[in-house]
């Protein structure tokens, strides 16, 4: 029984370590991310006899990483002065929401548009921004987000709806310019093919 449990633990570690490390790095930075994820796996190992390694293990791991990361950030806020720690939190969040993390946004060549999108994302309420980024930047499904954050699927859907509605409204002038650019590029391309 113990060998089977050890093998299961190793499988869970191999399957999820890198995903959890990336998630932690976006919360606390690269230097602390490994410690956070290792702490989570050490805790999982200690509690291996009481934790069922079933379908819910990924949600448990994401929630544990999030909790450990937030605890680390809180500890930093106490250890340092409050404003320095908050600056670090905001810098980590800014790195997390950089357009380079999304293939769609990588293709956009306008730095001004990137800045506008980044600013619009930053204007979202914290929980809504977290849900939006987990979906669009991390590629997580709504159900996975609900499990990872400990909220209902309906709440995730509501956050996504509100985030997209806000971003659509906030960026509507850019969407019009982008559509005009694409239309112009297509007409030039079509004229080139005809002649």
UniProtKB/TrEMBL annotation:
Residues 115-167 form the RNA polymerase sigma factor 70 region 4 type domain. Gene3D superfamilies: 1.10.1740.10, Winged helix-like DNA-binding domain superfamily/Winged helix DNA-binding domain. Signal peptide: none annotated. GO terms for molecular function: DNA binding; sigma factor activity. Keywords: Membrane, Sigma factor, Transcription, Transcription regulation, Transmembrane, Transmembrane helix. InterPro entries: RNA_pol_sigma-70-like (IPR039425), RNA_pol_sigma-70_dom (IPR014284), RNA_pol_sigma70_bacteroid (IPR014327), RNA_pol_sigma70_r2 (IPR007627), RNA_pol_sigma70_r4_t2 (IPR013249), RNA_pol_sigma_r2 (IPR013325), RNA_pol_sigma_r3/r4-like (IPR013324), Tscrpt_reg_LuxR_C (IPR000792). CDD domains: Sigma70_r4. Residues 13-76 form the RNA polymerase sigma-70 region domain. The chain crosses the membrane at residues 174-194. One of its GO terms (biological process) is DNA-templated transcription initiation. It holds the Pfam family Sigma70_r4_2. Belongs to the sigma-70 factor family. ECF subfamily. PANTHER family: RNA POLYMERASE ECF-TYPE SIGMA FACTO, RNA POLYMERASE SIGMA-70 FACTOR ECF SUBFAMILY. This is RNA polymerase sigma-70 factor.
């Amino acid at each position: 029984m113990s060998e089977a449990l050890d093998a299961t633990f190793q499988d869970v570690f191999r399957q999820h370590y890198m995903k959890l490390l990336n998630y932690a790095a976006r919360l606390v930075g690269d230097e602390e991310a490994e410690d956070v994820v290792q702490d989570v796996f050490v805790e999982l190992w200690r509690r291996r006899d009481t934790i069922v390694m079933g379908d819910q293990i990924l949600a448990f791991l994401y929630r544990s990483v999030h909790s450990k990361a937030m605890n680390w950030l809180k500890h930093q806020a106490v250890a340092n002065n409050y404003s320095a720690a908050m600056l670090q939190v905001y810098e980590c969040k800014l790195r997390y929401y950089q357009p380079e993390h999304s293939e769609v946004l990588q293709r956009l060549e306008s730095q001004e548009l990137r800045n506008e999108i980044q600013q619009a994302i930053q204007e979202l309420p914290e929980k809504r921004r977290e849900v939006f980024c987990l979906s669009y930047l991390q590629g997580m499904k709504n159900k996975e987000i609900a499990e990872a954050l400990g909220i209902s699927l309906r709440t995730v859907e509501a956050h996504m709806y509100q985030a997209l509605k806000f971003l659509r409204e906030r960026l509507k002038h850019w969407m019009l310019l982008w559509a005009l650019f694409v239309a112009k590029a297509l007409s030039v391309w079509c004229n080139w093919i005809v002649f």
